[in-house]
Amino acid sequence: MKDNEKAIRDDRKQKGKIGEDVAAYYLEQQGYHLLERNWRCRSGELDIIALAPRQADEYANAWDRKVEEDWNTDEVEIAEVQASRESSVAHSEITYDSDPSDVQSNRMAAKTIPVIVIAEVRSRTGSTHGTAAESVDWRKRKQLRETAAVYAHHTGQHEALFRYDVITIKLNDHYQAVELEHCMEAFI
């Protein structure tokens, strides 16, 4: 390989890494819970896999409803439930410490289906080869869907809803992010 080709490839990797770091930071600031970065399998790579912020709120609300409905407890027990809830939200699961006879109520609250966001990150320093969003063509979308299906199978997320977002990062000549665009539900 020629030195020039290696330099171009290294430059591209550096731009991609910077863009992904900026996108991950942005998503965390927006309330997303990052599950994976650069998840790979045979069919491809998923840049960022995250739990949508609304989903974390839904889990928290389910816990609050459960506390109000089932527990007539003192403040110490409520604090324990809240600590348990925070742990479950961080792991994107719902669990209950209620009476086993209350199975119907548990099933109803457990119907909250996770929304997993697959974020494809595209970084550019110019627009001579088209915009970053334009580079997510039908082939790339197909690959992302196939790779997300493998991820769902691998992690047991069969009932989760998957949303595909595209985050474009424009970098200046010094590789500093100057613009970020988040296109939610960019494709199905």
Automatic annotation (TrEMBL):
InterPro entries: Restrct_endonuc-II-like (IPR011335), tRNA_endonuc-like_dom_sf (IPR011856), UPF0102_YraN-like (IPR003509). SUPFAM superfamilies: Restriction endonuclease-like (SSF52980). Belongs to the UPF0102 family. PANTHER family: UPF0102 PROTEIN YRAN. This is UPF0102 protein JOC58_002643.
